[in-house]
Amino acid sequence: MDRRQFLKSSALGAAGVAAASSLAAPAIAQGRQQWTMVTSWPRNLPGPGVAANLLAQRITALSGGRLEVRVSPAGELVPGQGVFDAVSEGTAELYHSVPAYWGSKSIGFLLFGSQPFGLTAIEQSGWINHGGGQALYDELYGRFNVKPFLCGNSGAQWFGWFRNEIKSVDDLRGMRFRTTGLNSEVLSRLGMAVQAMGGADMFQALQSGTLDAGEFIGPWSDSALGFYQVAKNYYYPCIGEPSSAEECGINLNAFNALPDDLKQAVQYACQSLHDHVLTEYNTNHAKALQMLVNDHGVQIRRLPDDVILAVGNASGQLMNELREHQDELVRRITDSFLAYRTLTNGYMRYAEGTYFEARAMDYSFPA
User: Fold this and answer.
1) What is the fold, at CATH topology level, of the domain defined by 160-241+299-329?
2) What CATH number is given for 18-155+242-285 in this structure?
3) In what order do the strands lie in the sheet with 193-195?
4) In CATH terms, are 18-155+242-285 and 160-241+299-329 the same topology?
5) 3-state class percentages of the chain: helix first, strand second, coil last, to nearest 5
6) Could you read off the pLDDT of 55-105 as tens digits, one per residue?
7) Eight-class DSSP state of 241
8) Which terminus of the chain, N or C, has fewer Cβ atoms within 10 Å?
9) pTM of the model
10) What distance in Å separates the CA atoms of residue 111 and residue 314, rounded to the nearest whole number?
């Protein structure tokens, strides 16, 4: 992938996208509204598919039933990666997805999802809620007639499933690898042939040999999709996506038309779900990892140091380019993101980083 072409193609045109004026009128009966949520996931997929259902239930409950949300999984009403446009244009009122899918509209979207050597899930939430991130989030999505909220995070995403063991950064060159977001641009700079596809397609491509490796979410969701059946080497640390935000995008016209209490119901449903989703992922990731190793012979492997450093250097190069991006909003988003990363890293490296080092030392403690 040519770097300049990637940045050029993902730049946002000055005109933006006009606000949709043809929002499908929701069903209204005795003060009640029915909204359709389109998602990027198969129905009930462990992780994001389940989280989408929970979000719909919470909005309905917190609104006292005045705003009833019906879930439409990927492919039922629109394709999984078509949910943003469907909500922007008013075909549906809201979606559940991830920002990593919208990079072709503006590379700025990708900074709100996951970033190589970027923010952990807690840091990402901190940036949005306390570091000025939400205002920038609103400004970028508002160009497309969408109101965004974070509503979960899948936690640290492993570097990926590999058919063959990786010995050095040279082994990555020419490798066909599934990923999304900023990670795709970073890994392409290391010579990997990156491809974007859904989880089911990734399994089929690994099985057929048209992919050499790939990453999707983490042990919980990945085990449900069966990647361990076709690739036994599972690599860490999670430097490509140290977290991956899940988001709810709402048609801005529909959101603005709500009374204030229903706007708060939607907002609080998203905020309340974030902790639930993150802790559910981490709990089930831990259980699934034990199962993958003990029952399916998965080999947990650490990336060689030269790979880690190469990914870090390519990530830093990309961030420097985004600071000079032609879209001034992308520049402001990047500066805000980097400032918060520097701030929180100055604390977290001592607080949690050193604690995990201490917890891994050899001392007597019951299992």
Assistant:
1) D-Maltodextrin-Binding Protein; domain 2 (3.40.190)
2) 3.40.190.170
3) 193-195, 176-178, 213-214, 160-162, 233-236, 299-302
4) yes
5) 50, 15, 35
6) 999 999 999 999 999 999 999 999 999 999 999 999 999 999 999 999 999
7) B
8) C
9) 0.88
10) 16
